[in-house]
Amino acid sequence: MNVDVQSERDTKLVELLLILFDQFREHAFACISAADLSIPHAAALLRLDSPLSQRELADCLKYDASNITSIVDTLARRGLLERQIDPTDRRVRRLIVTAEGRTVIAQLRQRVLEEATVVSELDEHERAQLQALLTKAVGRRTTSTWVELFRGWP
Amino acid sequence: MNVDVQSERDTKLVELLLILFDQFREHAFACISAADLSIPHAAALLRLDSPLSQRELADCLKYDASNITSIVDTLARRGLLERQIDPTDRRVRRLIVTAEGRTVIAQLRQRVLEEATVVSELDEHERAQLQALLTKAVGRRTTSTWVELFRGWP
DNA sequence: TATTGTTATACTCTATAACTATA
DNA sequence: TATAGTTATAGAGTATAACAATA
């Protein structure tokens, strides 16, 4: 096949992916903002399924540790988590999500991933085909959680 | 088909798209930064294929007009574009990309879109299949240029 | 009066550096 | 001495409001 046609097709593929991603992004932003969270706050909360120290959370999210303080302050003030001083090392704060926090996490997860409609135009067979192709395209690559894609976004 | 299995598969599809997008994002950021541009500067420059006024540029990029001043200042200082006062309305500055600016635009476009390797794991037949499926999934949706997806990113 | 662009200002997100309490 | 967390501060990106020049 002609090289130009090949590269033109690949360009088209990238553009198609970007359109789908753009749609997902708008959907995800709407969900986060409906939960009255910012992106950094949502990213932090969604990481806390299992308790972490502030330092561990910073490392997971690739934030400097100095930023975690105010993010955790806000989430704690909202009653979504609690700081507990680690009895075995009194420097460490373990972050424990409250019952209310767990509800917020569960709702956000469900809405963002399950109510995404990026492939609503496809029937069941086509979705299966698409999934097979994308699985092959992705190979061994992995990503962090969806919300962490959005770091630094408005 | 069981509803849970259906929704689990859709979740998987979203995750696959996000992994591919994440790879593209890293590639695009590397290209922008190799061109010694920030995302807002790249977004502005890439919009100026055909000359616009500052106001028109702000509207295209969905920026408040007050931000355009410093972005255009920087690009002009770099010699990538020129402000020309519109002779028919002396309030308006038309933004004209220089020859050097056109070179930067062309290189950036080519590198970002043509050197993207999001589907390098697929053979020719699979790419064609994928393109057909994505075209159907996208339907009538469109997006702005790729770089505008990245507004507000680091 | 309305519009283009500029300036001043403020807010969010993020990083660096200096500090404290604890180890 | 080294580490967890906090505070102060700075810089980038973006928005709002007031202003000057022009229409």
Keywords:
8% strand, DNA-binding, 154 residues, mainly alpha
Q: What's the tally of helices of chain A? A: 6
Strand order in space, largest sheet of chain A: 1-3-2
Q: What oligomerization state is this entry in?
A: homodimer
Any idea what the radius of gyration of chain A is? 19 Å
Largest interface: A-B, 50 and 50 residues
Secondary-structure element string of chain A: HHEHHEEHH
Quickly give the structural class of chain A: mainly alpha
Report the principal-axis shape of chain A. Answer: elongated
Mean pLDDT of chain A: 91
Distance between the termini of chain A: 43 Å
**Major sheet of chain A:** 3 strands, antiparallel
How many runs of DSSP E, i.e. beta strands of chain A? 3
Estimated share of beta-strand residues of chain A: 5-15%
Instruction: State the helicity of chain A in percent bands.
Output: 55-70%
Low confidence ranges of chain A = none
Mind sketching the topology for me?
The structure is a homodimer of 154-residue chains.
Chain A: H1 3-34, H2 39-47, E1 52-53, H3 54-61, H4 65-77, E2 81-85, E3 93-97, H5 99-114, H6 124-138
Antiparallel strand pairs in A: 1-3, 2-3
Helix pairs in contact in A: 1-5, 2-4, 3-4
Chain A binds a DNA duplex (23 and 23 nucleotides) through residues 38-40, 53-55, 63-70, 89-93, 151-152, 154.
Describe this structure in words.
Two copies of one chain form a homodimer. By secondary structure, chain A is mainly alpha-helical. Chain A has six helices and three strands. Chain A has a three-stranded antiparallel beta sheet with strand order 1-3-2. The longest helix of chain A is centred in the first third of the chain and has 32 residues, at 3-34. The first copy, chain A, is elongated. The N and C termini of chain A lie far apart (43 Å). The relative contact order of chain A is 0.15. The mean pLDDT of chain A is 91. Chain A binds a DNA duplex (23 and 23 nucleotides) through residues 38-40, 53-55, 63-70, 89-93, 151-152, 154.
